[in-house]
Write a structure and sequence with these properties.
The complex is a heterodimer of chains A (342) and B (514). Chain A is mostly helical and 342 residues long. Chain A has 14 helices and two strands. Chain A has a domain at 55-257. Classes of the chains: A mainly alpha (342), B alpha/beta (514).
Chain lengths: 342, 514
């Protein structure tokens, strides 16, 4: 055995392959859980495994998947955004109101409105958290009320009914591409695009890096503020998109649209394996988490389980996911600790 | 003749690749560096030594762009440079590897190496293939077979260090700074690291090596710079100095305050006794005792394990083996609350974080450890609480208009006094002070010294941990020296000198850690 071989063996000592393995497993875990859930409902009901029912599940998961994806981008930087629902509502109401007053607007022009609104609202969140150094929970709790409040003030108690919206807006979400509802196709395309950005572009990788180890980011020279701001802006844009699709789907846009979605988006992201301590998980996982929630909802309806069990079961899923995440995160912290305690 | 830091090279000698000129830096009122000037030559290993707090870390921060100098210039190959971030410094060929590797655990080895400067394809997509090839190539140059695709979270400590060095090499590195790179490596791993250092040097890279192990410095370095008390002392070829003269240059800082030593202390019974105390992987077989009225100093370098010993005694991290006796009775340290009740108090080093509740009032801080005893019908008797706090702040001379003042608004010295008052309202028998004068101004320092002497005079057994050598020697009746988790020396007040303590603290091979 040569000296370098010996050194290589010495190197291996104390390595922690288990943690690396578990980290790679995150999305796989959600898929297994989803498959188990699907099998359970398929056995218990006759109607679950029909094309029509699965399409329903996919459609109801689609918008939540985008919102969960938005939440995930912020969670990856070790932050949080509880204004997700308010941003969706604000963008949806203003866009619907604009469309009602300008029926001649071209679809591509209308689409830009919620995206721009989302970017602006997300930038406010990002500036508060990244540059104002306000804890993310407090900052976005504030803007959650602020954005919703602005929506109330703007709407003045009115709502935008489906009859006032341009017809193309309502029909397009129900259109099908090769049998797949446009809504579902759009959600898949958006989630995949964000995934590619986070996975294959330098700025996307910086989002992961800042959440993975903020201290290392500082010593490395990454400007964490810019990265966190970017994450919040991206979150806002995605909320804008989700808000528009939501408005198109329900037709009648009220001021309370997407209330409570901050919690569902968080639940979906966490169930999908996105770590609340940053740096781990993926937007695909978050989207799968949304599918899990939609499947649970759907299965419980088919089984005629009373509505109030829904929240309980959703809670169990969240607590289980967070507990698993906490165990993994403590393993990561241990892997960063030096041999000689300081 | 004052040494200006230029090395004595013949006219034809190489140009300094890095030159520091009159660097000054202060953090608030605290000076971290004062007028530091020296040259680093290419193709040489340049040792940087100095006591704790001599200014080494600040120097590294300035050279790598983590901090900006208040005045003075950094010249890279003759050109003045001012890096705003470590990424800029790395791009110019200046990179640092720190004591605790700073890596991103959730990302792959290759990504950790590439992060600052990803190779990209036309539309800005990361070129993963190029990234992996480059990483593998860099690691191979270091003689390491780590898989570039592996996640950092799964690597060993030594592997972390190699990934960091590979990252530093990825930009065509001209100046590589290694900050205590071997403090957690085994001798074989350290030897491998120095093999890499020599190879890099022979290729013309300048290496700045910071280490508290003087054997390492004299064995590996070609040139040595000594910092003392935030100032440059000397830069010279390593061949011209031995360990003893290095130590002499590092120490010898005058005591900043006028400290009058108390008269021969009247020592009482043995109050604290520690027998073969060990904490797996941190320190081992530490035995000593402190008598009533005695001040026992504990010296050593940062990271030697002194604070860990104190925290184990205080029950923060219970020991893995060994025995502790307080006033002759054996105690089993399990929690701070329990140890406090047994009569042992501990003032932590970072009092702002561990010792005080910053946004609370002086009263609430002082009475916190004993608040239960102030309760009447389970409600706190606030009049009594306030009276007690007023008495305590008078005793410890906390300068404040009112005990209702918020602690975070006080100066460093006054905070330390509040911390004293807090832990002493309980009348402990033994007191452990961890760097009690670190970061406080000179005037308050003198008052803290006086207070310590007074407390010992009243019969308290004091264990004083300090990195300030003059303070340690002046204050202590006896001095214990800890190095790498083991008790390596003991000196009486009469025989202790700064040189002896530093020499004992900087020795290698004492390691108690696995």
């Amino acid at each position: 055995m040569s000296a370098s071989d010996e050194a290589a063996v010495a190197d291996r000592k104390g390595s922690r392959p288990l943690i690396a393995f578990v980290l790679r497993l995150r999305e796989a875990g959600v898929l297994v859980f989803l498959a188990a859930l699907g099998t359970l409902f398929a056995v218990l009901t006759h109607t679950f495994l029909t094309t029509q029912n699965l399409t329903t599940v996919a459609s109801s998961a689609a918008i939540l998947a985008i919102a969960a994806c938005a939440q995930a981008v912020v969670l990856l930087t070790r932050n949080l955004d509880v204004s997700v629902g308010s941003m969706m509502g604000f963008a949806a109401y203003l866009t619907a109101d604009f469309a009602a007053n300008h029926p001649a607007v071209a679809p591509w022009q209308l689409v830009l409105i919620p995206l721009a609104i989302g970017a602006a609202l997300g930038a406010i969140n990002g500036l508060l958290v990244a540059y104002g150094k306000v804890p993310a929970l407090i900052a976005t709790l504030g803007t959650m009320s602020l954005y919703r409040g602005l929506t109330y003030v703007y709407a003045h108690g009115r709502e935008v009914t489906s009859s006032r919206l341009p017809p193309w807006m309502l029909t397009s979400v129900d259109a099908r591409i090769a049998g797949v509802p446009l809504l579902v196709a759009a959600a898949i395309a958006i989630v995949l695009a964000v995934w590619v950005f986070l996975q294959y572009f330098p700025w996307g990788r910086r989002i992961y890096a800042v959440g993975s180890n903020p201290l290392a980011a500082f010593y490395f020279g990454l400007r964490a503020e810019r990265v966190v701001l970017l994450a919040y802006v991206l979150c806002g844009v995605l909320c804008g998109a989700a808000g528009l699709l939501y408005a198109a789907r329900v037709g009648t846009v009220t001021v309370v649209l997407a209330s409570g979605w901050e919690m569902s988006s968080l639940a979906a992201a966490v169930i999908g394996g996105v770590s609340v301590s940053g740096g781990a998980g993926s937007v695909i996982g978050a989207a799968l988490g949304a599918v899990v929630l939609a499947t649970i909802d759907n299965g419980l309806v088919l089984l005629a389980v009373p509505e109030f069990w829904r929240m309980f079961i959703q809670g169990v899923a969240i607590v289980a996911a967070v507990a698993a995440d906490a165990v993994i995160a403590s393993g990561i912290r241990a892997s960063l600790r030096t041999r000689g305690a300081r | 003749m004052p040494d200006k830091g230029q090395l004595d090279w013949p006219e034809t000698g190489p140009l300094a690749v890095l030159r520091l000129e009159g660097i000054c830096k202060a953090f608030g009122p605290v000076h971290a560096l004062e007028d530091v000037t020296f040259d680093v030559l290419p193709g040489r290993v340049h040792g940087l030594v100095g006591e704790n707090g001599a200014g080494k870390s600040t120097l590294v921060q300035i050279v790598t762009g983590l901090a900006q100098p208040d005045s003075g210039r950094v010249l890279l190959a003759g050109q003045p440079v001012r890096f705003r971030t470590p990424i800029e410094a790395r791009a110019a060929g200046v990179a640092a590897v720190y004591q605790d590797p700073k890596l991103f655990p959730h990302m792959s080895v290759a990504e950790n190496i590439a992060l600052g400067a990803y190779p990209t394809l036309p539309i800005g997509v990361i070129n993963r293939k190029a990234m992996h090839t480059t990483a593998a190539e860099l690691l191979r140059r270091l003689g390491s077979d780590i898989d570039p695709r592996a996640l950092v979270a799964g690597l060993s400590y030594a592997e972390h260090q190699f990934v960091e060095i590979a990252r530093a090499l990825s930009a065509d590195v001209r100046v590589l700074i290694l900050d205590e790179p071997t403090s957690a490596l085994t001798p074989a791993e350290a030897e491998r690291l120095f093999g890499v250092v020599r190879t890099l040097r022979d290729r013309g890279t300048a290496i700045i090596l910071i280490s508290h192990r003087l054997e390492e410095i004299t064995a590996v370095c070609d040139d040595i710079t000594v910092l003392r008390d935030r100032r440059h002392v000397a830069t010279m070829p390593a061949a011209e100095v031995d360990r003893a003269s290095l130590v002499q240059m590092m120490v010898g800082r005058p005591l900043e305050t006028l400290f009058t030593r108390r008269a021969t202390p009247a020592l009482g019974e043995e109050t604290l006794r520690v027998e073969t105390l060990s904490l797996a992987g941190v320190f081992a077989d530490v035995s000593f005792s402190v008598r009533a009225g005695e001040i026992v100093g504990m010296g050593g370098l940062v990271g030697a394990g002194r604070s860990e010993i104190a925290q184990t005694l205080f029950g923060v991290t219970p020991p893995s083996s060994g025995r502790v006796f307080l006033r002759g009775r054996e105690v089993h340290p399990r929690s701070p609350g329990q140890m406090l009740a047994q009569g042992l108090a501990y003032l932590p080093e970072d009092r702002d974080r561990d010792g005080l509740i910053m946004p609370e009032t002086i009263t609430h801080n002082i009475t916190l450890p004993i608040v239960r005893t102030l309760a009447r019908w389970s409600f706190v008797d606030s009049a009594r609480e306030r009276r007690l706090a007023e008495d305590a702040s008078a005793t410890y001379r906390v300068l404040t208009p009112s005990v209702e003042q918020i602690v975070s608004s006080l100066s460093g010295g006054n905070r330390q006094k509040v911390a004293f008052a807090k832990w002493l309202t309980n009348d402990p028998a033994a007191l452990i002070l961890d760097e009690p004068t670190h970061g406080i101004d000179i005037g308050s320092k003198a008052q803290v010294h006086e207070m310590i002497a007074q407390l010992a005079g009243e019969g308290l057994a004091v264990l004083l941990i300090s990195s300030d050598l003059p303070e340690l020697i002046a204050m202590s009746d006896r001095i214990l020296v800890i190095a790498e988790g083991a008790l390596v020396g003991e000196f009486s007040h009469a025989e202790a000198t700064q040189e002896k303590v530093m020499m004992a603290a900087a020795q290698q091979g004492a390691r108690a850690r696995p």
